[in-house]
Amino acid sequence: MKPASVPQIRKELAFRSPEEIKEICLRLARFKKENKELLTYLLFEAQDETGYIEHVKEYMTAQFRSVNRNRFYFVKKSIRKILRETKKFSRYSNSKATEVELLLHFCREFQLFGPSVQRSTTMKNLYERQIQYITKKIESLHPDLQYDYHDELETLLKK
Predict the structure, then answer these.
(1) Is the pLDDT of residue 23 over 80?
(2) With pLDDT > 90 as the criterion, what percentage of the chain qualifies?
(3) Which of 14, 65, 72, 110 has its CA 20 to 30 A from that of 143?
(4) Largest alpha-carbon pair distance within the chain?
């Protein structure tokens, strides 16, 4: 089955009643965890973006602290998972400033994680790719935000 395009879905939703749309959303939430997370963000957290950012930062910090450090394989796998979840949470917000803020926090936590990660070429490349990605995202922001985030990035790189 080929899924419909977004414009087709938008047109079809225009013809549906609010009750039908509510039922469709609830049905969507039952099928995938990501759908449920997105609906949770849109319904409860979208109004308070700073609160959402702080909540995600706390979650990321907790994830970094709970990484299994017994073998380097588990460390790499856990850090990649944290990065994947960070990008997923920033995608829910659909704000470039939120994405930059979350990725900067990821890089800060990555630096604090320990020297064992910095010795790995794979992990060093992952970190450098995130720095490049943050730099590119900062350029597309408002000039005031660019200045603030550029300063944060510079202090991050000095450590």
Answers:
(1) yes
(2) 50
(3) 110
(4) 58
Per 3-state DSSP, the chain is made up of helix, strand and coil in percentages (nearest 5) of 85, 0, 15
Residues in Cβ contact with 111 at an 8 Å cutoff, skipping those fewer than 6 apart: 118, 156, 159
Reported residue count of the chain is 159
Task: Pick the closest to residue 155 from 107, 95, 118, 100 (CA basis).
Answer: 107
pLDDT class of 49 with cuts at 50, 70, 90: very high
What pLDDT band is residue 79 in, cutting at 50, 70 and 90?
very high
pTM assigned to the model: 0.86
Of 93, 86, 98, 90, the C-alpha closest to 46 is 93
**Burial readout 88-119 (b: 16 or more C-beta within 10 A, e: otherwise):** ebbebbeebbbbbbbbbbbbbbbeebeeebee
